[in-house]
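Need a sequence for this fold. Nothing fancy.
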């Protein structure tokens, strides 16, 4: 099937990377290069801003009150999962794990059962299933779990601190992230590209291109590679 006709499941459309994915797809449509239908999996009906973004990207809405199993999805070719929270926002370690591991895995399984052969998923810098840091350990466990599902092509993004306007998307405030971005902004150009904050648009662009390419096996893209590939 031609890349332009591929059907994409998008989980995390309300977040920085997910919304950037929709913007990228809308740009393709405006340029006469549509990728195909997009199914956005949401926990609640979209607000006006998200509705407009979906309309511009030939997007359709799937609403599931919970993101755990069982999920029934339409037939798709590819899946892009950009779900993620922080322990501070989630409130407890268990609530964080429920989103960043359990929900991601449930959606990946449902996408595979719905026909997806290619999966792109957003993880984090430092992900390691054996890490002593809980956040990194959960991200690493998620990577291992989705790697075992048998997708023909799997792309794992490990961005550093994501830069973007969360308030404009109606997302919960992340004070620690906001202060880190403020403190790093004056010296950002001096930081190694491997750890400097990265724009969500660069992550989105790289993941869509990787899905289009569909290289067999598992690719892990560190933040430096995401920045390199995602810069127009």
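Here you go.
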């Amino acid at each position: 099937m031609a890349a332009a006709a591929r059907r994409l499941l998008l989980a995390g459309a309300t977040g920085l990377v997910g919304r950037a994915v929709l913007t990228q797809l809308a740009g393709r449509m405006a340029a006469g290069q549509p990728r195909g239908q997009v199914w956005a999996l949401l926990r609640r009906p979209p607000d006006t801003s998200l509705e407009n973004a979906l309309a511009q990207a030939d997007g359709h809405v799937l609403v599931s009150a919970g993101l755990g199993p069982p999920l029934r999805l339409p037939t798709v070719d590819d899946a892009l999962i950009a779900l993620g929270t922080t322990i501070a926002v989630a409130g407890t370690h268990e609530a964080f794990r429920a989103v960043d591991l359990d929900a991601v895995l449930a959606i990946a399984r449902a996408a595979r059962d719905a026909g997806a052969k290619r999966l792109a998923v957003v993880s984090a810098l430092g992900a390691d299933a054996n890490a002593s840091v809980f956040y990194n350990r959960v991200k690493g466990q998620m990577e291992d779990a989705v790697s075992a599902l048998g997708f023909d092509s799997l792309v794992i993004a490990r961005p550093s601190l994501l830069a973007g306007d969360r308030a404009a998307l109606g997302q919960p405030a992340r004070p620690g992230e906001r202060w880190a971005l403020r403190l790093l902004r004056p010296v950002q150009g001096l930081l190694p590209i491997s750890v400097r904050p990265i724009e969500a648009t660069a992550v989105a662009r790289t993941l869509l291109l990787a899905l289009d390419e569909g290289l067999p096996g598992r690719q892990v893209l560190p933040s430096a590679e995401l920045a390199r590939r995602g810069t127009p």
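For context: The chain has one domain: 3-230.
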